[in-house]
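Formamidopyrimidine-DNA glycosylase
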Amino acid sequence: MPELPEVEALAHHLREHAIYRPVARVDVASMSALKTFDPTPQSLVGRVVTGASRYAKFLSVEFADRPDEPLHLITHLSRAGWLRWHDTASTTPPKPGRGPLQLRVHLDSVGGPGFDLTEQGTQKRLAVYLVRDPAEVPGIARLGPDALEIGRARLGEIFAGDTRRLKTVLTDQQTIAGIGNAYSDEILHTAKLSPYATASKLKEAELDVLAETMHAVLTDAVERSVGQGAASLKGEKRSGMRVHARTGLPCPVCGDVVREVSFADRSFQYCPTCQTGGRPLADRRLSRLVR
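Structure:
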């Protein structure tokens, strides 16, 4: 799933390639991905891209060329969605429900440059909104503070009284916005904290380390991602991971084997030596969770 660093990089990519270009045509290949009906996607034709920004894990393409009627094309890429830039594209409208293409925006001219929103797999969760105000998107309206804007004092306030596990708190977008499964694994590993630690029970020193680590991990990922082409971002993300998606491989810090805990259709990775005092956490597939 694209998280804060990748979405920031995609916004940067659009700012470099799409700004000041007019929309020639919008192809909607999946009506289920479109979550709004007014304004219609065709109202973008003739509008000029004026910016691109990030709201946590939401990507917004902005059309403020008419100050009295700004529009925002906002997408949440979910787990398997992506934005793909193209220099040329087919002029034939796509057939609905065929392939990964969900929406295509032609810029300058039909068949010219632009971008596609795509989603792999059978579970289609990518969401597209065309709104006059980003706050009209329910997920954006509910967002907590952005992870990069949270300092040590604010983090302490957020964790006070929260009896949930650290992994849960870090990935709850209404509590801290922008962090998903992958970067929460990386942050907790770097901070040497257990995913199952209780947020409200962290010591002051642990809060200090977590606040510093959260900012450092995300900032480093943003710096590595920004400037990369959209096509190379996934590979860049994977190459920077120390424990996430590295089950069975040695921890780059201590050499212990990276372990995995699975639940529902997701999983997370951690290092027992670095994070849980050498004790492996129980996998819900096999037994009750170790507290």
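The chain has eight helices and ten strands.
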